[in-house]
Amino acid sequence: MVLGEKKGKDYTDEDFELLETLANHSAMAIQNLKLQENLRESKELESFHKFSSFVVHDLRNTVSILSMLSENARENMDNPDFRKDLIKTLSGSVNNMQGLLSRISMQSNHSRVLLEEIDLCALIRKSLKDLNLNSQFKIKFEFKKIPKLLSDLSQLKKVIVNLALNAKDAMPNGGQILLKASKGKASALPANIRSDWLPHAFIEISIADNGCGMTEDFINNSLFRPFRTTKDNGLGIGLYHCKEILETLGGRIWVQSTVGSGSTFYVGLPVKGDLSRSEFSSPANLKWNALLTN
């Protein structure tokens, strides 16, 4: 700020105080602009880090599927049906990796959730079949009559695959994975879910294992948070990714677990007639579309 010549009178103390006040306000405005720019850059770095974590996790899941496939191939390569499934699974894995590459190169403002009618029971069966779990694991399905969903098929498959792989990892010596799908009952929702999510009608999926289970402390303080895991070689991003996907699609996820007895993860998804009342309809909740579109 430049102090010019004042004609007729000398500058008073009040003049200098006014100029000092104006200078301080100008300095604060400049500082606020710098802080806003730093905050914007910080948020961009956080978004990139989150996106990178999701991509790495999806790649690890694909590698796990290929690893199980190669193990099963040692014993079943002579089986013609296995060879057909092998080709389908390899083709699906290639498509998944191509999708990841597309997501990396995609402009976020051009991304969107891809809605289509989904036969959820068929999707669950196919997702488990594509995993090619070995004979150590008994897969059981219990499906009741449910309506079709209007949702994003590829993203729901990621959730199902991730929860099934978690169930497998919880049982290193093998065990049973039980998958159910039915119309949800609002009265059965946990209080913390019911307090902010109560669609008129929803479908409930559950994936249960009889593995190691989780402590109440871990569930309350670490589960569904990024980079928190009980696995020695885990990233701690999978369940957080599932939560982000489901909330973007208007759904919720919760769990019941007992140490030494196993865990059951529940997924609630609004039926298509209830989407207008779900969070999916709000643009503010589509912030991770860039991460969720193949």
Q: Quickly name the level 1 CATH class.
A: Alpha Beta
End-to-end gap: 54 Å
Rg (CA only) = 26 Å
- Spatial strand sequence of the major β-sheet: 2-4-5-7-6
Strand content: 15-25%
The SSE order reads: HHEHEEHEHEHHEEH
**Biggest beta-sheet profile:** 5 strands, mixed
- Describe the oligomeric state of these chains in a short phrase: single chain
**Can you tell me the overall shape?**
elongated
Helix content: 40-55%
Number of helices: 8
User: Based on DSSP secondary structure assignment, what is the total number of beta strands?
Assistant: 7
Low-confidence stretches: 106-111, 274-294
Q: In CATH terms, what is the architecture?
A: 2-Layer Sandwich
Instruction: Kindly give the count of domains.
Output: 1
Structural description of this entry:
By secondary structure, the protein is α+β, with helices and mostly antiparallel strands. The chain has one domain: Histidine kinase-like ATPase, C-terminal domain (Heat Shock Protein 90, 2-Layer Sandwich). Helices cover 49% and strands 16% of the residues. The protein has helices at residues 13-76, 80-105, 120-131, 153-169, 191-194, 216-221, 238-248, 289-292, and strands at residues 116-118, 137-143, 149-151, 175-183, 202-209, 252-258, 262-270. A five-stranded mixed β-sheet has the order 2-4-5-7-6, with helices on one face. The model is unreliable at 106-111 and 274-294 (pLDDT under 50).
